[in-house]
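Researcher: Here's a chain I'd like modeled. Treat it as a single chain, no partners, no ligands.
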Amino acid sequence: MTDADGEAIVRSKGERLVREYWGDYLGVIAGEGGLVRLVRAPFAALTIYLVDLGDTWIAATDVGLLIDAGLLSPRIDWSFVAHFLAYPFHRSRRTGFLGVTEVTSGARLTLRPGRRPVEESLWSPWDYVRPMVPNDAAAMLEREVRACVRTCVEGRRQVLLELSGGLDSSILAASLWDTPTQVICVNMISPSPDGDERLFARAVTERLGLPLQEIALSPRDLDLVAPPKLRRPRPSAHALLGAWDEALTVQASELGVDAFVSGGGGDNVFFNTHGSGPAADALRGGAIGTWSTAVKDLARLHGCSVWKAARLSIRRALTPATLTWRSDTRFLAGPATAILLEDHPWLDPPAGVLPGKIDHVRGLMAVQNYLDGFPRASQAPILTPLLSLPIVELCLSIPSWTWIGGGQDRAVARQAFKARLPAIVIDRRAKGNLSGFAGPAFEAARPKLAEHLLGGRLDQAGLIDTASIRRALEETGPPKGSDFFRVLQIADVESWARSWS
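Model: Modeled as a single isolated chain. Structure tokens:
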């Protein structure tokens, strides 16, 4: 960046910084009379917290620093906790501490002496959702992904790639292969068949000639009621990922890597959808032939009849296009069952936006909650190249129905890297999951979870339905359905709340 570039950024009050640069940065622009502007990069793991001390405002990237300096005495905001429980994947400016807010991703915060801070959005996904990419979308995506991956690891000697064997991390492996950076792939193995993806990870590394290390995990390695390792003003990563995170931390320390590389956010960026939005978009925004093809692709993707796919897509196309956000009130009580959704600058789509594009943006909003909060980041930075802004903007502009082409999810990404990855990965339909790993851990931890939740901080605040939680924890045998994941999610919030008692 030249001096002229810096001056242009200052004149634009930070807009040019967001428009022409990408990465994990924090922009600070000082003005006259004590004016300061803070700019947070879109999709940045680097957070900016603002603390209200009455007559003073303090900004920091880590509230722990403020606590250690005696500038912040954290007090839990139980209204935030109720909202977090009801909308666990929605991230707003509010945090779990009274008087502490967070600058929104892609926003500018203006601070003036004697005035309230003003936040303005400088980047919005709605500016990129108009379908405009030509037929060579796959080729464009391949070039963009490879370029962004190369930029992300530039100057790093050795990185650890978290290779699950799924499509997203495999695309990263193919993109890292021809960079100067040394790549070591690590595959985590759980004891259940649905968590053992060695077959796919091995196929990728054998094809690319990359080293692969395999680490076996056991449900015994999990402590589902352990206090969080990070001091954050909101609950962190799921306790189910604790053993996984610790194993990666140890591995990175032994290898001396410069960074972790994760495929996090790939599903959201590559629009891995389970709804009828793509076919509805084809009906509203494409020709009749495009819609007919999209309906067949949708039926094949979800294993339903063409008639059902057509009916669902017509119904969705005729429904007013609004960005809704469902609450999850299972096991909740009191204010947590009726709290309204917090505002976010991306919640208001412009007129004429297609329904599938609304689904795409909703997914990108959800991923905001997983950009930080992983303890292994204290060992080495966690790079998520698939959330690089050029990739996000390109994917938003690709017509939604092309992402389900041929009845496959993430079809454009599959086509983009078809020549670089083995067919067993490109054609893979199933995804690994934690159910077989988490179930036994939950079953063994039922007594601890009961002691943790019944009579705990959330119970004392009147936010959880202890009767329904008690019933779930008193059941015997392997857990069924997804309710046990929900109980573990609530236990995470309880652990966070206790850590600040």
